[in-house]
Amino acid sequence: MQECPDSTTPPCHPIDLLGQRLDRTIVLVGMMGSGKTSVGRRLAKTLGWPFQDADWAIENAAGTSITNIFAEIGEDEFRQRERQVIARVIDEQQKQVLALGGGSFVADETRHLIKERAISIWLDTDIDILVKRTSRRNDRPLLSKGDPRTILTALLNERRASYAEADITIDGGSGSLGDVVDRAVQALRSYTDRSASS
Ligand code: S3P
Predict the structure, then answer these.
(1) Residue 31: phi, psi to the nearest 5?
(2) From the CA of 66, how far away is ligand 1's center (Å)?
(3) Contact between 144 and 138 (Cβ < 8 Å)
(4) Of 130, 167, 170, the residue nearest 150 (C-alpha)
(5) Atom of ligand 1 nearest to the CA of 37
(6) Residue having the nearest C-alpha atom to atom 11 of ligand 1
(7) From the CA of 49, how far away is ligand 1's center (Å)?
(8) Which of 43, 104, 130, 185 could form a disulfide linkage to 100, CB 3.0–4.6 angstroms apart?
């Protein structure tokens, strides 16, 4: 895409410029139910970039579901596979939006890899919304072990400090999906402005 001489000249409106200025994968992190896949898909469309979901990539590579992977090899082995798949997906494409599974950014090696190679956005979302959204699906093995609200609250307390290491934090809960994507775009603009001036 050409650099725009004038930001009002179609099709070089400012969003095109943002897509040009960003030079790395954008990774969405946060709890189960924080909206990573929906926001990621819409953000990718807005930027004109491809979208990837790490859970789907893991399931494709294994030829089976996350639920079966947890049941067959357990969470520790799942985390190793998760890191390998995320590294491969980041290697394959320079500009893409990648939604991660909720626990991946908590694993030190995976978080360090992402910090080096991508721009991370934490969708910080409150417990009531997480409980409501996760109740719509029953394919999350960690939530089938007991009361989802209790489990989500404990996980968020454990994970919050890791999520806070993301490059960007936005509110993932209030407003519509479009509002969250707009917040992500605004935050990315500020991030690229800060990076350019530092
Ligand atoms: C997990 C979140 C899930 C999936 C797996 C474990 C977690 O992904 O990776 O069930 O540890 O929080 P979503 O966050 O996309 O639901």
Answers:
(1) -65, 160
(2) 9
(3) yes
(4) 130
(5) 15
(6) 103
(7) 23
(8) 104
Q: Which domains does the chain have, with CATH numbers?
A: 14-191 (3.40.50.300)
pTM summary value: 0.92
- pLDDT tens-digit readout, 132-168: 999 999 999 999 999 999 999 999 999 999 999 999 9
pLDDT in tens, 59-82: 999 999 999 999 999 999 999 999
Euclidean distance between CA atoms 140 and 85, whole angstroms = 19
**Residue 87 CB coordination number (10 Å):** 15
Q: How far is the CA of 103 from the centre of ligand 1 (A)?
A: 6
- Decide whether any atom of ligand 1 lies within 6 Å of the 101 Cβ: yes
Residue type, 49: W
What are the two backbone dihedrals, phi and then psi, of residue 24, each rounded to the nearest 5 degrees? -140, 165
32 lines ligand 1 (CB under 6 A): yes
Report yes or no: 139 and 69 within 8 Å, Cβ to Cβ. Answer: no
29 backbone dihedrals φ, ψ, rounded to 5°: -120, 160
